[in-house]
């Protein structure tokens, strides 16, 4: 980070604080307060805030500073509808292209670590590995445009996942689903990989939205 230009440091530092909940939704700060928080001048901070506003993470109001955006359940549901559809397509393309023995071993190793985290009840570690597993599958799909679109949506869905991390049950079912998805991809069965990944995303997204509604005191149906 120290080697990056000031505007890049401001951007990455603020983004990290927002995604990890250190600047939770609804937080309002003046531009001068943000600059002081980051120990940077206002110019790179202003440039960083423009980027974060374009990404939907903050609202910027001239002379009133910034407010960290809070996404509604409906917005999060829309994000997941797109995000999950693209991720399922990535799994299909990865199965079509095939994976090397080294790729399989790496993915298999990640799943083994996830299963051990599940046994320990370490949801935080499991979630990090889950992100890594899904990112690896997307990285192998061979479609840079699809990868770029998923990256744009990743930040917003990540905040929703962090919000309910302490509420989710042990991911035993997800571990089994991941194993089945990887087996289908290894076999080059794109139809089965697509079916299994769609099933996995549908169940996981339904659980996440239900937990978000529970957290906000809404009925689980909406």
The CATH first-level class of the largest domain comes to Mainly Alpha
Our measurement of the CA-to-CA distance between the termini, rounded to an integer number of angstroms, reads 41 Å
Strand content: under 5%
CATH architecture of the largest domain: Up-down Bundle
Side by side, the strands of the main sheet go 1-3-2
Beta strand count: 3
Uncertain residue segments: none
The SSE string, one letter per element, is HEHHEEHHHHHH
Number of helices: 9
CATH superfamily of the largest domain: GntR ligand-binding domain-like
Main sheet specs: 3 strands, antiparallel
Q: Could you explain the architecture of this structure?
A:
- The chain has 222 residues and is mainly alpha-helical.
- It has two domains: 6-68, Winged helix-like DNA-binding domain superfamily/Winged helix DNA-binding domain (Arc Repressor Mutant, subunit A, Orthogonal Bundle); 73-215, Four Helix Bundle (Hemerythrin (Met), subunit A) (Up-down Bundle), CATH 1.20.120.
- The protein contains nine helices and three strands; from the N terminus they run H-E-H-H-E-E-H-H-H-H-H-H.
- A three-stranded antiparallel β-sheet has the order 1-3-2.
- Helix 4 (73-97) runs antiparallel to helix 9 and helix 5 (101-120) runs antiparallel to helix 8.
- The longest helix is centred in the last third of the chain and has 26 residues, at 190-215.
- The radius of gyration is 19 Å and the shape is globular.
- The protein starts with 5 loop residues before the first helix and ends in a 7-residue tail after the last helix.
- The mean pLDDT is 91.
């Amino acid at each position: 980070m120290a080697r990056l230009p000031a505007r890049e440091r401001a951007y990455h530092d603020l983004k990290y604080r927002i995604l990890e909940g250190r600047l939770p939704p609804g937080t309002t700060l003046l531009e001068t307060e943000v600059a002081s928080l980051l120990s940077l001048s206002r110019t790179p901070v202003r440039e960083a805030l423009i980027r974060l506003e374009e990404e939907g993470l903050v609202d910027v109001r001239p002379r009133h500073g910034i407010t960290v955006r809070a996404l509604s359940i409906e917005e999060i549901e829309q994000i997941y509808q797109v995000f999950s559809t693209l991720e399922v397509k990535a799994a299909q393309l990865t199965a079509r292209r095939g994976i090397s023995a080294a790729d399989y071993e790496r993915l298999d190793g990640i799943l083994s670590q996830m299963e051990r985290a599940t046994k320990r009840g370490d949801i935080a570690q499991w979630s990090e590995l889950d992100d890594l597993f899904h990112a690896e599958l997307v990285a192998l799909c061979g479609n840079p445009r699809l990868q770029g679109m998923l990256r744009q949506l990743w930040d917003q869905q990540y905040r929703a996942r962090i919000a309910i991390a302490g509420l989710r049950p042990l991911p035993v079912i997800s571990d089994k689903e991941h194993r089945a998805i990887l087996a289908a991809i290894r076999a080059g069965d794109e139809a089965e990989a697509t079916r299994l990944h769609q099933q996995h995303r549908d169940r996981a997204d339904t659980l996440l939205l239900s937990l978000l509604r529970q957290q906000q005191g809404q009925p689980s149906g909406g």
